[in-house]
Amino acid sequence: MKFQCTSCNAIHPKWHGRCPECNEYNCIEEVQEATFSQKKGGAISSSFTPGMKRTALTLVTEGLNTRAKPPARYSTHISEFDRALGGGVVEGAAILIGGDPGIGKSTLLLQAAANMGSERRVIYASGEESLDQIQRRAGRLGVQDRPVELVATRDCLALTDLIETLPAGSLVIVDSMQTMDAGIDSAPGSPNQVKTSASHLIPAAKNTGVSLLLVNQVNKDGSFAGPNILKHAVDANLMLETDNSSGTYRIMRAEKNRFGQTDEIGIFEMTADGMVSIENPSEVFISQRDPDAFGTVIYPSVEGSRPLLLEVQALVSPTSFGTGRRSAVGWDTSRLNMLLATMSARLALQLTDSDVYINVAGGMKINDPALDLAIVCALLSAYTQSALPPDMVAFGEVGLAGEVRNTSKAEARVKEAKQLGFRQIICPLDRKNSRLDSACKGIDRIARIVTEIPQISSILKAS
Questions:
Q1: Is the pLDDT of residue 212 over 90?
Q2: Are residues 236 and 311 both part of a single domain?
Q3: Which residue from 316, 325, 310 is spatially nearest to 365, judged by alpha carbons?
Q4: Which pTM does this prediction carry?
Q5: What are phi and psi of 134, to 5 degrees?
Q6: Do 391 and 428 fall within a single domain?
Q7: Residue 48 and residue 211 in contact, taking contact as beta carbons nearer than 8 Å
Q8: Residues near 117 by beta carbon (within 8 Å), at least 6 away in sequence
Q9: 357/225 Cα distance (integer angstroms)
Q10: Cα(371)–Cα(33) distance, rounded to whole angstroms?
């Protein structure tokens, strides 16, 4: 009998209230010394002890120049879902999809299953809903006549046996991993159950070329629930989130993707007919903007391979306390504090007795340092209470010396702004980037090229 920590995976001979390795409380669980067969995941027997004779294995190595045939990729016929996946579902890939309850995970996967059912064998396995509930949802979505096979089960071993009989290129959806029972002495949803279920399902799918879409629940802080080993075992982690403004739109972000670009996003709208792809999200994020309001500016962001126009809002107001409050939604508050200190030193602004609020409208979370220049413009507009030109965008990284640094994919940002009718662009000077110069051609008024933030103050006063 052994006991294992669900936090650090340390093995202990007896139970502890607190793990001696990581000092976490109530994380020790009893584990069975089970031996898994090759058919159910191919794990090495845990009954091996030092001194036992074991058969030597012959390992075959290959060089880096060996050209393997790339795996086939299949479209879900949902454009934003394909974008988040990197172009579609890869044959034999295991994909983990998480999100808050009711956000639309099951709806989106049922739509994808219905679209792909006419091209390959698709099985939708649910441990949370009955067959009648799934069929009723299919009727609401208008896909009840699609060739999708349904099974309501929590038996992970039976589902593994079914996967091993499927032809390559098939698709299996498991909703959800927290309901699977792998036959061990532990409650469904526990870390041991989730890990054991993954050790059965994922190797079986990869050996047969079956694609797996695994639904995973989330914790109350919005992160993936269960052991972290599950996120390492799969090929892609997709998180479905909702926007903070209206709650109508859904944002799918790829946190990890072995077959595509990370930080790629797909944007959907939840309707009565299911999840609908948003083909031009820039218009959605800036459609409710008030062009005459002060403290707002448009920022051309790049999420994965997609440029997006987002509205950045700033508010500066007198504080009721001795020290002003700083708050940022969709951006790093510590970076806001650093930027305010730089503006105070380089522009002689007195902001210590003011509350400063920053908001990235639309519920997006931005980690790109190119947002710095848009924040500076929005803060100057809010501080002086004067509106910026409605056709102005700004991007660029601001250093502690007040300099404006070059950013990546500047030409893509400029092209997206031009396409939606913006004619004033404040961006860093990049003499080595000829593509940026060509992208700025055709703008009615010349693009504002800056190298330090004192120039921005004079530009905004002139505007």
A1: yes
A2: no
A3: 310
A4: 0.74
A5: -65, -40
A6: yes
A7: no
A8: 146, 147, 148
A9: 32
A10: 52
> Structure tokens of 245?
């403004």
Sheet holding 28-31, edge to edge: 11-12, 2-5, 28-31
pLDDT at 141 over 50: yes
Please give the Cα distance from 63 to 47 (Å, whole number): 34
Query: Which residues, in sequence order, are CB contacts of 69 under 8 Å at separation 6+?
Result: none
Residue 184 · residue 192 · CB < 8 Å: yes
In a domain, 64, yes or no: no
346 and 360 fall within a common domain = yes
In this structure, what token pair is assigned to residue 432?
A: 């080595």
Please tell me whether residues 299 and 236 are part of one structural domain: no
Per the domain annotation, does 379 fall within a domain?
yes
What tokens does 351 get?
């902001």
The whole domain housing 240 covers 73-278
* Confidence (pLDDT) at 123: 96
| Statement: residue 32 has pLDDT above 80 | no
pLDDT in tens, 390-442: 888 899 888 888 888 888 888 888 888 888 888 888 887 665 655 565 656 65
pLDDT band for 356, please (50, 70, 90 cuts): very high
What average pLDDT is seen over the chain? 83
Res 116: pLDDT: 95
| Domain identity same for 358 and 399 | yes
Query: How confident is the model over 51-60, as a mean pLDDT?
Result: 61
Interior angle at CA 191, CA 188 and CA 194, nearest 5: 60
Neighbours of 252 (CB within 10 A): 25
Could you report the per-residue pLDDT of 446-455, keeping only the tens digit for each? 345 555 666 6
3-state secondary structure the chain: CEEEECCCCCEECCCCCECCCCCCECCEEEECCCCCCCCCCCCCCCCCCCCCCCCCCCCCCCCCCCCCCCCCEECCCCHHHHHHHCCCEECCCEEEEEECCCCCHHHHHHHHHHHHCCCCCEEEEECCCCHHHHHHHHHHHCCCCCCCEEEECCEHHHHHHHHCCCCCCCEEEEECHHHCECCCCCCCCCHHHHHHHHHHHHHHHHHHCCEEEEEECECCCCCECCCCHHHHHCCEEEEEEECCCCCCEEEEEEEEECCCCCCCEEEEEEECCEEEECCCHHHHHHCCCCCCCCCEEEEEEEECCEEEEEEEEEEEEECCCCCCCEEEECCCHHHHHHHHHHHHHHHCCCCCCEEEEEEECCCCCCCCCCHHHHHHHHHHHHHHCCCCCCCEEECCEECCCCEEECCCCHHHHHHHHHHCCCCEEEEECCCCCHHHHHHCCCCCCCCEEECEHHHHHHHHHHC
Residues pairing with 452 in the sheet: 403
